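=== Structure Prediction Worksheet ===
Name of assembly: unnamed complex
Input type: mixed (protein and possibly other molecules)
Chain count: two
Listed entries:
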Amino acid sequence: EDQVTQSPEALRLQEGESSSLNCSYTVSGLRGLFWYRQDPGKGPEFLFTLYSAGEEKEKERLKATLTKKESFLHITAPKPEDSATYLCAVQRNSGNTPLVFGKGTRLSVIA
Amino acid sequence: GAVVSQHPSRVICKSGTSVKIECRSLDFQATTMFWYRQFPKKSLMLMATSNEGSKATYEQGVEKDKFLINHASLTLSTLTVTSAHPEDSSFYICSARGTGEDGYTFGSGTRLTVV
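=== Predicted Assembly ===
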């Protein structure tokens, strides 16, 4: 059974305090690992897709990395507007399959 | 980029009535759409997979007679919550399978409150 585990559940950072979020996964035939940002009362907003171990992608203060067992979302010098829930999801290597989501990490950045 | 429009964003209905939620892909055709349910501070739980022109595939534990899904065109899928009860109150989110890098575009969600 596909499983996605995110840690920590919640993270509170001071503005400018860099940190990393973890996503461990077990999936038969990984096609892609996705990171989304979700604000309260909104749908998930796409951040990154990673396809193979060793791949890295960056967007502003965010950087996502992937290994064969886990992915990290690094947040460098976060700002209060980075406060949100960050969701990790995996796609199995077989066509139009749905994403399997982790429970998310709720990030709060305090000014 | 790909856009999915979901309506309504909020709805309050009386117990026993039915509510329809629409999910439209605005600038691409989506042969497959997914419906999720999300409880407060919880992750997205897949309810069903909807393929255009065929019956939806429901996840274990999801009542297909309560949550009716129709995907009659390549740009529209609907979720109807029939005979709604307070326990059906939740945040419902649709997702359309596209061809861009993100591959999966999400709607903005519908907050359903059954009173």
